Amino acid sequence: MAGRGSFDEFYAGAVGRLVGQLYPVTGDLNEAEEVVQEAFTRAVARWQRLRDYDRPEAWVRRVAMTSSWICRSRRSPRPWGCPRARPRACCPAAATHWRPSSA
Fold first, then answer.
1. Model confidence at 90: pLDDT above 90
2. Is the pLDDT of residue 25 over 70?
3. How far apart, in whole angstroms, are the C-alpha atoms of residue 35 and residue 60?
4. Which domain holds residue 35?
5. What pLDDT does residue 102 have?
6. Is 81's pLDDT higher than 90?
7. Quick one: which H or E segment has residue 57?
8. Residue 103 placed within a domain
9. What is the dihedral of CA 57, 60, 66, 68, to 10 degrees?
10. Helix axes 29-45 and 56-75, enclosed angle (nearest 10)
11. Are 79 and 86 in contact (CB under 8 A)?
């Protein structure tokens, strides 16, 4: 049975790769680090299940990618969405770009 130490080893081995993969997606190193950290926070809470996956890093990557897309969509105009929605806390940088709707 893998213990807490195995998550620490997993984190140490994967965090650099994931930040490197998310940086081109986000275009901002700080945002890439933030979404990867959020994904690892979710992973540690589910580590009992994830440690048995063939590729737990793929799960963490998917969560980080989804977070980056959510953050990006909340910073850009969204004709299909709710224009009054505030940016999520996962993207503090988005808060500086958020403007309330005049409607």
1. no
2. yes
3. 10
4. 4-95
5. 47
6. no
7. helix 56-75
8. no
9. -100
10. 130
11. no
Per DSSP, the three-state class of 52 is coil
Q: What share of the chain is helix, strand, coil (3-state, %, to 5)?
A: 65, 0, 35
Question: How many domains are there within the chain?
Answer: 1
Please write the tens of the pLDDT for every residue from 44-60. Answer: 999 999 999 999 999 99
Burial of residue 99 (CB within 10 Å: 0-12, 13-18, 19+) is exposed
Ramachandran region, residue 53 (left: φ > 0; alpha: ψ -120 to 50; beta: rest): beta
Say which DSSP state 18 is in: H
CA gap 51, 54 in Å, rounded = 8
Q: Indicate the burial class of 33 (C-beta count within 10 angstroms; 0-12, 13-18, 19 or more).
A: middle
Residue 100 lies in a domain: no
- What spatial distance separates the first Cα and last Cα of the chain, rounded to whole Å? 56
| Average pLDDT of span 13-37 | 94
Specify the amino acid at residue 44.
V
In a domain? residue 70:
yes
